[in-house]
Amino acid sequence: MKALAITRQGSPVAPHVALIEMPDQQPGTGQVRVRTEASALNHLDLWVGMGLPGIDTAYPFISGSDGAGVVEAVGQGVDASWIGRRVLLNAAVIQPPTALPGMAPAGEDIRMIGEHDHGCMAERFIAPATNILDIGDADPVQAAAFGLTHLTAWRMLWTRARVRPGMSVLIPGIGGGVAVALLGIARHLGCTTIVTSRHAHKLDRARALGADHAILDDGGDWSREVRKITGRRGVDIAADSVGKAVHGACLRSLARGGTFVTCGCTSGSDATTDLTRIFWNQLTVIGSTMGDMEEFRAVVRLFRTGALKPVVDAACSPSEGREAFARLEAGDQFGKLVIDWR
Predict the structure, then answer these.
(1) Which CATH code fits 162-287?
(2) Are 142 and 336 within 8 A, CB to CB?
(3) Which fold has domain 2-148+291-340?
(4) DSSP class per residue in 288-322
(5) pLDDT score, position 266
């Protein structure tokens, strides 16, 4: 099969991306094989190309944690009625907890399709039958653009930060897939939204999508502008995927009792924090990643009813895949970059 594979580790990643022939895979017990119609890029694809700590990736490797397509084969133990159905993947495969003598199991662990195992940037991909949803006649490009970012954003806001209608939500770095998904979910829930970006044109796009307030990040302390917008109160939630570059401003933007929730750190992980502000203002700092199938069903239901829609920056052919990686790597996109395999 043809695959848009990362041929070797390196930074930048895009020069090492190539459309090559890779061995086809057969579904094992409990698995399905999906003929890919569309797959979408995430920043995770870049981390895979640069090399993830603790993961011994064998290159060439097929990344891709967002995929939609039609089931064409099933493994042992999977009902044959899946064959011919269009499905959307949840790439976060929850692992069973490890039992240790005299100790309660730790929290859930996740094995990611497209990170630990070959992913969706190919003509076919393999997935557990328990990690796919039937999406009927949904547009596969839209579906692939929706999956992982909206699942991540849903867990961040709904499950972890416990957002409720009427709250105020700060979203730095608007334009990235998760940030745009956060904006859509916050608006759907009736929240007041404040977005930031280093690029004025991305702020214009966010306003067009319904952002209530937009702040140009010029490298200064934009938390003062957040305080001004909120009558010096601050926001209830800062939902961040940027990391080091905005961490301090996010904390300074929070109201007393506010919540900082993070799912990533594209600008770096070694942020300097402010413990005095955290304890004095009784802030909550929460990590969040991916989501389980209950959360996936909840957010995909909103996609299927039209309540939430992804923003697609561009849909490219597989032959344009290297250029799509380069656009993601440069941070030029607004929304999702999708590879259309049809």
Answers:
(1) 3.40.50.720
(2) no
(3) Quinone Oxidoreductase; Chain A, domain 1 (3.90.180)
(4) --S--HHHHHHHHHHHHTTS----EEEEE-GGGHH
(5) 80
